[in-house]
Amino acid sequence: MRNQFLLIICFFCLVFSGLAEEVKFTARISKKKVAVDEQFELVFTINHIRPSGFIPPFLGDFNVYTDPPAQISGDSEINGKVSYFVAISYVLSCKKVGKFRIAPAKIKAGGVQLNSNALEIEVVKASPVSKKSKDQSDNLQNIDDNVFVRAQLSRSSVSIGEQVTVTYKLYSKYSQLGYDVVNSPSFNGFYSESLAPENKIDNRTEIINGEQYRVVELKKTLLFPQKSGTLEIPQLEVVCSIPQKIANPDPFEEMFNGGYKNVRVTLKSKPVNVVVKPVTTVGKPADYNGAVGQFNLDAKTDLQKLKSGDPLKFTFSISGRGNLRLIETPKLIFPEELEVYDPQVKDDISAAEEGMKGTRSFEFVLIPRVGGNFSLGPFSFSYFDPLRNSYRTITSQKISVQVSGSVGDSPFVKSKGNTINPKEISEIKGIKPYASGFEPIGNTPFFLSPLFYLILLVFPASIVLLLFLRKRKNNRLANHTAYRAKEAGTAAQKRLKKAHILMAAGNKDLFYEEIYRALYGYLSDKLLLPAPSLSRSNIKLLLEKKNVPVETTNRFLEVLDACEFARFAPVASFEMEKTIIEAEAILNATETWLK
Amino acid sequence: MKRYLIALLFCFCLSVQASTPDALFHDANAAYGRNDFKKAAQLYEQLLSDHKSAAVEVYYNLGNAYYKQNDYTNAALNYERALKLNPAGNDIRNNRDIVNQRIEDQIIPVPELFYMQWFNSLRDELSVDAWAFIVFLMLSLCTISWFLYVLSKKIKVRKAGFVNGIIFFILAAFSFLLGYSSYNNTVENNSAIVFVPTIQVKGSPADSGSDLFIIHTGTRVEITDQLNDWVKIRLLNGNEGWVRMKELEII
């Protein structure tokens, strides 16, 4: 008791020493000077302890928007010391012009009353602008500064066919903002390829005019100008829904939406122009086909040697960076003896911000009509390199093809003019040289045939048969034991009869054995136990269990003892007579009990 | 005299040999090899009609021979017949698909549910009778397991027998389902190929029936019903209607 009292005193000492050092209860306001009806925040902060009994100052001069006040608690770190704090904040506005005093708030902490500092606030007449911005229906002025869409070009001046990337970005100051791109602009005068906008989810920030904005990429498109001059990048239209606090919320609305309402605003990006320079005509090659960029050329065939009439695949591939998708099928001149089919265009092109790169290949199928050695190429390809500002022509190496056979060998020569597409001919699989085995037509399968059902029946039938056999065996076993028990008496009588004959014959040893067996066999049959497991003590117990009187049991055992004794000792013949009578009597007696 | 006899014997042998299916097949292949597709097709047909017996390869080669003669209707019929005998044949499928591109009607089949696709591709892996054999195998394993369950005295063996018996029974039932599906797909004669240039499909089994749509030669149809000499058909895209039986050839 004494100890506890001491402890409590110590504790209070500690608390008070703590209070004396660190507890601070302060009040502050977000603005010293406000307009009439302008909202400001009043915050009371107390640190290190958990306050109780907070008594707010009289706020009769103000509109209180937060009732009860918002309360925040947490840990703050000051000079490396972690301390607990509680902040109580009010959102207020003032109805009248003038200077107002906010009286200290009171708080109880550890039995001591603490007062915060007093504050003064000056309320001035509202300026018309701020009044307007206060007007609930018209917050759009603010919104225009806080959210807008811009189109950004990677370059403002390019040559025809050179890529330029346009990125539409949404800048906003709102943390929560829903948006929806309304129109997808059509880029007139450009070949366009849209790219996946980056960081759609991960919001990046950018600082514009000293203000930080969240940035979302709305749309990113790779453009290849097709004509020279000043081309306009069209506007992108976005509908944004911006959450706005409602000044005088309907209580129901407040309950469901937290006093916020989504304001829908349609935003448009400002039009941007790009200057497209024409490609110089100086040194323009005759075969120039509009390719702009940096390219390599590769020409190859799938075979070097083939028979006339067989198709030959010739691949002409242009790889590199530039307007790959705009490259048209080059006009290649092949030897007269080759039948040429329209090429298949295969693209392996990836579009990224820095431009298109990859390979465009043209696969020609050529069918030589006659044998001989043919050379394909050299073929050339011209493009404009905007980095060097000049035309370049690249040339493929010559390919030689050996064709065996002569005119008339090929079935495809005959089929010239037919609509047979060589691609499909190469796809059809040839005939099979061997037959896998002939079967009569209309041969019904084994499945669902009568034999099938028959074999199907074998399995359940075999299980049924097994169960049947097992049951019968069990029955028989049960029958057998019952039979044995029933016939135990008869069997014993039989043995006794035999004993009578043996007695008449004077065969003493066999006589006693027979009696012995008759008794033992009787018990073993009756009790359903094998004879060897029956011993004297055992018999006593078992018969006791069967409610055979002890007297009868003892008589039974005496006869058995007599038999055993007589087998090893000389016995008079009248003894034999006595034993057999006693045996008969005891068997009858036991039978009445063991029925 | 002796020479005549030998010559006669030789001729006899030749004639006997030429009449065996294998020899006919070989001859037909040889004709095909010489690009004599007409002769090849004729020999394959002879093989089918004379011996009333067939192998997958005969139908397949016959399909090829017709294909080379630009007879896509007969080619389609024989490829389908080959597929009936060997549903898993990749070459047959390939050539059948090529033929289907060449015929007039390009019918887009109703897409099957993914598990039906799995089921069907599993089914086509084996022939009907192979599935029958698997059913027996699973049932015998099931029976053995149940025997173990009934006869064994060890509790572990009994447990395993019981569980395995159930598993094998389910597998047997599933194999039976696959076999049954295969049976329906390959044995039942409920598919046909259109064998006249164009058919006006009717809404009812009469010439007075309303005109529904037109199908062309080589198109595969499923027969779902029959009334006198009219049959109700269903296309792979699900369209149904009535046409005359004689305008079709059963696969």
Question: How is this structure best summarized?
Answer:
The complex is a heterodimer of chains A (595) and B (251). By secondary structure, chain A is α+β, with helices and mostly antiparallel strands.
> Overall pLDDT of chain B, averaged?
85
**Sheet having the most strands of chain A:** 5 strands, antiparallel
Q: How would you spell out the order of helices and strands of chain B?
A: HHHEHHHHHHEEEEEEE
What's the CATH architecture of the largest domain in chain B? Alpha Horseshoe
Radius of gyration computed on alpha carbons of chain B: 25 Å
Oligomeric composition of the shown chains: heterodimer
* Low-confidence runs of chain A: 13-21, 128-139, 407-426
The CATH architecture of the largest domain in chain A would be Sandwich
The coarse overall form of chain B would be globular
Radius of gyration of chain A: 56 Å
Fold topology:
The complex is a heterodimer of chains A (595) and B (251).
Chain A: H1 2-22, E1 25-29, E2 33-35, E3 40-47, E4 52-55, E5 62-64, E6 70-78, E7 81-94, E8 98-102, E9 106-109, E10 112-115, E11 119-124, H2 128-134, H3 140-146, E12 147-153, E13 157-159, E14 164-172, E15 178-181, E16 190-195, E17 204-208, E18 211-225, E19 229-233, E20 237-245, H4 251-257, E21 260-268, E22 272-277, E23 293-301, E24 305-307, E25 312-322, E26 338-340, E27 344-352, E28 355-368, E29 372-376, E30 380-385, E31 390-395, E32 399-404, H5 411-414, H6 422-427, E33 439-440, H7 450-505, H8 508-526, H9 536-545, H10 550-568, H11 573-594
Parallel strand pairs in A: 2-11, 13-22, 24-32
Antiparallel strand pairs in A: 1-3, 3-7, 4-9, 5-7, 6-7, 8-11, 9-10, 12-14, 14-18, 15-20, 16-18, 17-18, 19-22, 20-21, 23-25, 25-28, 26-28, 27-28, 29-32, 30-31
Chain B: H1 2-19, H2 21-33, H3 37-51, E1 53-54, H4 56-68, H5 72-85, H6 90-102, H7 114-123, H8 128-151, H9 155-186, E2 191-194, E3 198-202, E4 211-216, E5 220-227, E6 230-234, E7 240-244, E8 248-250
Antiparallel strand pairs in B: 2-5, 2-8, 3-4, 5-6, 6-7
